[in-house]
């Protein structure tokens, strides 16, 4: 190991030329998912200013709360011939130095609690708009291992992220197959025009009293907010960031919704969706649908997905856009015959079960990665021991 400043171990915001007015792949901050290694372009956009980076560079959020939420990823170009990309001004771009450091290793170093804590502690600025001080971060001293050791650590942790990424892509493929099957159902069946109210009961949420700490005890009711859906980026939700007490839940005015409820955020940003795996309650940012038994969860979920543009168009409000419960109930949808819906649900539920299995596997893999990361960085665990732990977990997952 060699002790050096982080600014000596890596290139921060390396100089890249991008002509003003040229069109380049663009990465928005909201595209970066917390504690997710890979990020891709959001769109092609005319460059007028912002971060500039190449395929394989690290994008580290420098603004609150994005950094605290874990927004640090490696940019991956879809088109390897177009390596240069641009993005939010709130990114710190980091790259390895040939012969000294590997970008793949630096990614795990920057996502470690050691470096994250330093970056967060360096933040200055007005409340809600605090930013990392680059000079403080770059002057922090780190123990940099040899390139060979860096490669071993990055490969060991990367094997877990590779599996997580593969599972994510498979889930996206399964989702698209279900979506196409749903559209085919509407095209081929004898459909009639109905409303969301026919899908099931539209249920709003409530608001816990923040002044009472007992409302936030982790001892009972899964409490979900739209932020939980956006940060977790999980289709199937078993719990939110907190589990409030039973007393807090009852006093909030929220309803306890059963497993299979389709969660739908009704306030801007409208349209975050999830499916409850167990009994769940939500805040006021939702107009969720508890499906009628003869309609079922899969059909309800995809019907709301298809209706999203109409729901957004009917949202109103001066402070923020929101659709009311009545407005939600009256949104028009297409209703095939009940028999066709039930056949679709039966087929689609098998696809949902596969997605649930991969989502749960990802949780196990991510937990192992996050456990091994500080141990490998500190040298408290050897590469061989880490690799054996990974082998044991992946073998158990495949059994």
Give me some keywords for this one.
five-stranded mixed sheet; alpha+beta; four-stranded mixed sheet; single chain; 21 strands; 42% helix; 12 helices; 399 residues
Show the helix and strand layout.
Layout (H helix, E strand, L loop, with lengths): L1 E4 H4 E3 L10 E5 L10 E2 L3 E4 L4 E4 L3 E4 L10 E4 L8 E4 L3 E6 L6 H9 L1 H9 L12 H6 L1 E4 L2 H42 L3 E4 H4 E4 L17 E4 L1 H7 L3 E2 L4 E3 L1 H7 L9 E3 L8 E4 L3 E3 L5 E4 L5 H18 L10 H5 L2 E4 L2 H41 L4 H16 L1
Parallel strand pairs: 3-9, 4-8, 14-19, 15-18
Antiparallel strand pairs: 1-11, 2-10, 3-5, 6-9, 7-8, 7-10, 12-21, 13-20, 14-16, 17-18
Helix pairs in contact: 5-11, 5-12, 11-12
State the share of residues found in helices, binned by percent: 40-55%
Number of helices: 12
pLDDT averaged over residues: 90
- What percent of residues are in strands? 15-25%
- Major sheet description: 5 strands, mixed
* Strand segment count: 21
């Amino acid at each position: 190991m060699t002790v050096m400043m982080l600014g000596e171990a890596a290139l921060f915001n390396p100089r890249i030329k991008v002509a003003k007015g040229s069109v380049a792949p663009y990465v928005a901050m909201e595209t970066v998912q917390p504690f997710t290694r890979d990020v891709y372009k959001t769109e092609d956009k005319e460059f007028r200013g912002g971060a500039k980076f190449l395929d394989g560079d690290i994008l580290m959020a420098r603004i609150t709360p994005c950094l605290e939420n874990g927004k640090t990823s490696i940019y991956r170009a879809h088109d390897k011939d177009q390596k240069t990309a641009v993005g939010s001004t709130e990114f710190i771009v980091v790259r390895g130095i040939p012969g000294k450091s590997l970008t793949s290793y630096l990614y795990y170093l920057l996502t470690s609690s050691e470096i994250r804590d330093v970056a967060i502690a360096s933040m200055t600025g007005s409340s809600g708009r605090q930013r990392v001080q680059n000079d403080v971060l770059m002057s922090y001293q780190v123990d940099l291992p040899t390139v060979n050791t860096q490669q071993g650590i990055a490969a060991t942790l990367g094997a877990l992220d590779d599996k997580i990424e593969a599972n994510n892509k498979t889930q996206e493929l399964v989702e698209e197959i279900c979506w196409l099957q749903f559209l085919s159902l509407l095209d081929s069946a004898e459909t009639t025009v109905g409303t969301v109210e026919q899908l099931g009961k539209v249920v709003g949420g409530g608001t816990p009293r923040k002044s009472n700490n007992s409302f936030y005890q982790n001892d009972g009711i899964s409490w979900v907010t739209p932020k939980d859906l956006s940060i977790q980026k999980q289709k199937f939700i078993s719990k939110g960031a907190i589990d409030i007490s039973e007393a807090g839940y009852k006093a909030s005015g929220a309803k306890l919704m059963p497993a299979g409820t389709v969660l739908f955020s009704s306030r801007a940003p409208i349209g975050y969706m999830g499916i409850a795996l167990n009994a769940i309650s939500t805040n006021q940012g939702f107009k969720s649908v508890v499906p009628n038994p003869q309609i079922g969860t899969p059909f309800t979920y995809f019907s709301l997905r298809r209706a999203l543009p109409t729901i957004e168009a009917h949202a109103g409000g001066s402070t923020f856009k929101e659709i009311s419960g009545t407005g939600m109930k009256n949104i028009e949808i297409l209703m095939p015959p009940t028999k066709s819906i039930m056949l679709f649900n039966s087929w689609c539920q098998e696809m949902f079960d596969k997605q649930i299995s991969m989502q749960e596997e990802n949780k196990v893999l991510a937990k192992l990665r996050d456990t091994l990361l500080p141990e490998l960085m500190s040298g408290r665990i050897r590469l061989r021991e880490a690799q054996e732990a990974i082998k044991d977990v992946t073998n158990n997952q495949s059994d």
